[in-house]
Amino acid sequence: MHKIDIDLVNMTLDVMKYAIDRISVTEPKIGIPKKAEELKALVGETITPKGIGGEVAFNLWKEHLMKANVSIDHPRHLAFVPASPTRAAIMFDLVTSASSIHGAYWMEGAGGIFCENEAMKWIVSLTGLPEGAFGVFTSGGTAANLSAIVTAREYWRSLNDKNKVEKGLIITSIGAHSSIKAMAKVVDVDVLLVDTEDRLEGTALQETIDSLTQQQRQRLFAVVGTGGTTNAGIIDDLDGIATICAKEGLWFHIDAAYGGGALAADSVRHLFKGIEKADSITIDPHKWMFSPYDCGAVIYKNPELAKEAHSQQGSYLDIFKDEGAHGFNPSDYQIQLTRRVRGLPLWFSLATHGTERYKVAIERGLELAQIAGKLIQDKPYVELVRDPSLSCVLFRRIGWNPEDYTHWTYENHKKGFALVTPTKWKTGTAFETVSRFCFINPDTTEKDIEMILDSMK
Ligand SMILES: Cc1ncc(COP(=O)(O)O)c(C=O)c1O
Question: How many CB atoms lie within 10 A of CB 232?
């Protein structure tokens, strides 16, 4: 199985050709999911005692299985948070896999971790955090948020023995991403939600803190603000929240998993004022920094606190911490031990293109949202729910009910034309089903947006 043979070499060439074709294509197929039974009927038994052979398996992949995936970098994939990895980054993802690097410890992955850290320095510089701040690449925003919450909770526990026996409490708003609530469950802390999907203001946070019982106040250890809500691209009052957190002695985490890329865009950088005062920040390069999956990042003002929370101890791991092997060990700063050097494709792409090209590509996402906003205003059958924010646009098709949005989504998807999905927007106490664009891919054109809106007529 580990021998090199001519068939395997030929196969590698086929795979490279497939990869080159996929990297070069400008409009990949959107892809249509199939039920598991349908896929099974198409490909049959693939895991057998003797194996079906690489060629057969690869052909099944190309013929049937790949076609059941959505290409998230399609220019008319505007649902959820799409992705658009650069071609250089995808290419280097292949190199990353082929290089077989263990990215947990410097002793094994010095070259790869060095590159990751160079890319990380650029990301940290965008935040304006003070000297000493640093971060690591994680599998995504969820893992980054979890790593940050664990660090915050462990720090809080270290402050006072009483905190060690209390169940912690964090405050965020209903606009925060679902992963905050999900990860709070993992850590077993309570979450108090300020009831606004709009910008979480410092004043609303202060009122919420003031309304806590003494027992709740004692359990409160962190506030999570959002630097670009996933649903609507709204940036919380980061400066106001930072001031309150400093006054109240609370950890301030900012989830900028989606919006963090926009820190590189001069046109909107001012909206993030206050981010430089955070204790920790999540930014997902696999969203608006054009990195292939899976590449998130968690950044700490004081990385030593993360190390105290996450560094794993074990006799077989001691050598990694020895002077002779010592360097920066990414596993010390987040929840994962074994990890691929997932920041390496980003490093290569940044090194290839330079940070200026990133700025331009990110500005394009912002511009596309403005273009979409104008097109929506010009058409009588659609209207904006709110002004575009970052690269998110919420709009309604006048006269449609929730089923119409769902039907339209499926129809466009089935045709392989576009993937645009509905969401809900809360006004007062009512939730309305509306449509949503999220722009990431700089190759999306005004014509693409026109065509999608036309399909709603
Ligand atoms: C604001 C925000 N936080 C966290 C996440 C979760 O990130 P991931 O899917 O990379 O775990 C997302 C995903 O869309 C997000 O938009």
Answer: 24
Which ligand 1 atom sits nearest the alpha carbon of residue 230? 16
CA 418 to ligand 1 centroid distance, Å? 22
Distance between CA atoms of residues 368 and 384, nearest Å: 15
- What's the pLDDT score for residue 429? 87
- Residues belonging to the chain: 457
In the structure encoding, which two tokens stand for residue 46, read together?
């693939």
| Ligand 1 pocket at CB < 6 A | 81, 140-142, 145, 177, 179, 226, 230, 255, 257-258, 284, 296
Per-residue pLDDT tens digits for 100-123: 999 999 999 999 999 999 999 999
Tell me: pLDDT of 27 over 90: no
Peptide bond into 294 cis (omega under 30): yes
Quick: pLDDT tens for 191-217: 999 999 999 999 999 999 999 999 999
Strands of the sheet with 392-397, listed across from one edge:
382-384, 392-397, 430-438, 422-427
Ligand 1 atom closest to the CA of 229, numbered from 1: 1
- Substitution candidate for ligand 1 out of 78, 81, 149, 179 with most atoms within 8 A of CB: 179
Query: What is d(CA 344, CA 347) in angstroms, rounded to the nearest whole number?
Result: 5
- Among 230, 254, 289, 293, which residue has the most ligand 1 atoms within 8 Å of its CB, making it the best to mutate? 230
pTM above 0.85, yes or no: yes
DSSP assignment, residue 366? H
- Bridge partner list, 298: 136, 282
CA of 138 to the centre of ligand 1 (A): 12
Among residues 242, 211, 210, the alpha carbon closest in space to that of 224 is found at: 242
Q: Which domains can be identified in the chain, with CATH numbers?
A: 34-68 (no CATH), 101-353 (3.40.640.10), 357-454 (3.90.1150.170)
- Residue 378 Cα to ligand 1 midpoint, Å, equals 32
Ligand 1 center to 311 CA (angstroms): 24
The token pair that represents 283 in the structure block: 């930014």
261 alpha carbon to ligand 1 midpoint, in Å?
Answer: 13
